[in-house]
């Protein structure tokens, strides 16, 4: 059995860092292992303009502890009023690496998202011209559609028509959770990628609901049936270039998770690499972990892979803190419910 694994330093292609005391408290959890991350713009108010993204980037770098290195890759939150020229300038300057599409009301802080897609056609056409990727939270918000079907319905009724309307638009299907998502990503060309979280490789919907409701397993898109989890595992461990890690690590203080109307989001930044190593080992795919965590993402985003490396070591079960204590309050670390034997040692 492999006891050590060296891989290029990983990146996180979908991360929520928040702001203020929360940012300060949780940034080291990502920066400890990851070189770069695509930073989600769903702050309140959202990061819409290039100037707002530059200011947010400065706040992230200011929150980075002395001696830690980390490169935030900024995104813009697409609204119906987004200015195509501002987006193009923010991309040309190197500041912005993607634009994020939230259907209005789909998830945490998405009320400024898109309702009428005809209003963003011009921006999306410009993005296709300049090769700037669109990251999509792919769920419909139609009240009649069952929450477990919202991703599959989105693919058929929104995503596929959108990609046909704007040929050449580079799209990342964010945090896919279904076999339909896996199949659609596989059917695309090299203009289509998909991120997969660590937690969706580990939990299915029973983990949320059986034996009592577990708010720390509730995120959006919500975990689906076991067959979907297995499809995601097959995709992540396949080594195929279109699938890469986006943790969607999404901290909320415990008071807002353990609540009558609990917030969506799993906080995985602390133990993502241990979770992934355990999953890839279970599936006999340790030799493909580097592709998923460190190579496929940069290739899609047309960035070089990191030059430095990390070492994962297998040993006695690793003890992670149950919570990260931040100035905003405690944040519970995702608990997979099984022992994690691999940890980053260098
Ligand atoms: N994933 C989540 O459940 N929550 C995210 C938003 C998102 O990525 O949809 C958040 O910002 O909390
Ligand atoms: Zn999302
Ligand atoms: Zn997210």
Automatic annotation (TrEMBL):
Residues 12-305 form the Amidohydrolase-related domain. The active site is at residue 248. Zn(2+) 1 binds at residues 14, 16, 100, 248. Pathway: Pyrimidine metabolism; UMP biosynthesis via de novo pathway; (S)-dihydroorotate from bicarbonate: step 3/3. The modification N6-carboxylysine is found at residue 100. Substrate binds at residues 16-18, 42, 137, 220, 252, 264. Zn(2+) 2 binds at residues 100, 137, 175. It catalyses: (S)-dihydroorotate + H2O = N-carbamoyl-L-aspartate + H(+). InterPro entries: Amidohydro-rel (IPR006680), DHOdimr (IPR004721), Dihydroorotase_CS (IPR002195), Metal_Hydrolase (IPR032466). It comes from the Bacteria. Its cofactor is Zn(2+). This is Dihydroorotase. It comes from Ruixingdingia sedimenti. The lineage of its organism: Bacteria, Pseudomonadati, Pseudomonadota, Alphaproteobacteria, Rhodobacterales.
